[in-house]
Amino acid sequence: MLVEVSQGDRIALHIDEPEFANVQTPTVLLVHGLTGCHAAPYMIRFAHYFLSLGYRVCRMDMRGFGAAWAHSQNLSHAGRSDDCLVAMSTLAANTTGDLFAVGVSLGGNQLLRGIGRIGAGLDPQPSWMSRLSGVAAVCPPIDLKRCADNMDRRRMRLYNHYFIRALLRRPPKLVAQRADFQAIMRDRRPKTLRQLDEQFTAPLSGFDDALHYYRESSAIEQIGAIRTPTLIIASKDDPIVPYECFSQDTCALGNIARTDKLNILSPRAGGHVGFIGRDNRSWLESTIEMFFRTYLSFQTGSGSISSATGDP
Question: Which of 28, 101, 165, 216 is least surrounded by Cβ atoms within 10 Å, i.e. has the fewest?
Fold first, then answer.
């Protein structure tokens, strides 16, 4: 399903129904990270798990990714929280049950920023907000400048190369046709994500520069206004998103009381979206679903997922 968002762009929603689903069946939105899509292994894993427990599952493709690749004239970025809200509105329009959302990495920042802006009164409160029963963000880059500083280190050279190569190898079809994009592509290629944001993300998305993009798009400024039960999972050994983003001593998040509205789980190990247990399996799904179940009002059943690469 293609859904229109701002600037005439479209995102894609891939919806799987559990057996015996009805309008009261709880629904969970899954939002991928940078360079990912609905068919990323972790998205499939999450979808299988939640569907097997009776949740309706929606895997979202950001602008320019997955099934939305040919339908976006603009880039997706960390501040596109409005796209997540449009996805939630679309799901809410045809259901009456509990709503949940899981964002991974960049998608986590988008979700936190979106519900935080609503809580702060910066965006209007949608009619479905009272049904949003739980949100989870896995390794979200909530402080983009701090993350960029981390990626500037020499030891992060291979990570920078991986992300930049993946993003520029196959840019969104309509973005690649833009004259300003083509002009930037003739310049020297960026070597770090900060340079990528300075050369591409900021100017193509209406920001003055990378610092302006980081300031406007980081979720850290809105997290204190979140009113929905929220779980953040952040590893202390994450090479991409430094734990200092979440440390009580080093950032604004430390001034926010840990309550039933904001819970932070910080294991010693897990890397960036790893979190593999002693049995060689990821414990993310079960931990997040256990958190959601605390706020679940509807008894779930079971189901099976459709093809991961099916048409939108």
Answer: 165
Q: Which stretches of 28-170 are DSSP H helices?
A: 41-52, 81-92, 106-119, 144-151, 157-169
Question: The tokens 């979700």 sit on which residue?
Answer: 111
Q: Which CATH number fits the domain that encloses residue 114?
A: 3.40.50.1820
Residue 77 belongs to domain spanning: 2-144+220-293
Q: pTM, whole model, 2 decimals? A: 0.90
Q: Which of 80, 88, 100, 101 is nearest to 127 (CA)?
A: 88
Residue spans of beta strands (DSSP E) within the chain: 2-4, 10-16, 27-31, 56-61, 99-104, 132-138, 230-233, 262-265
Indicate whether 191 belongs to any domain: no
Residue 248 lies in a domain: yes
DSSP letter at 226? Answer: -
Catalytic (active-site) positions? 105, 238, 272
Number of folded domains that form the chain: 1
CB proximity list for 283: less than 8 A, separation 6 or greater: 275, 276, 277
The series of mean pLDDT values per 10 residues for the chain, 312 residues long, is: 95 95 94 95 95 96 96 96 97 94 97 95 94 95 95 92 92 95 92 95 96 96 90 91 77 50 86 80 90 76 40 31
126 located within any domain = yes
The residue type at 82: D
188: three-class secondary structure by DSSP: coil
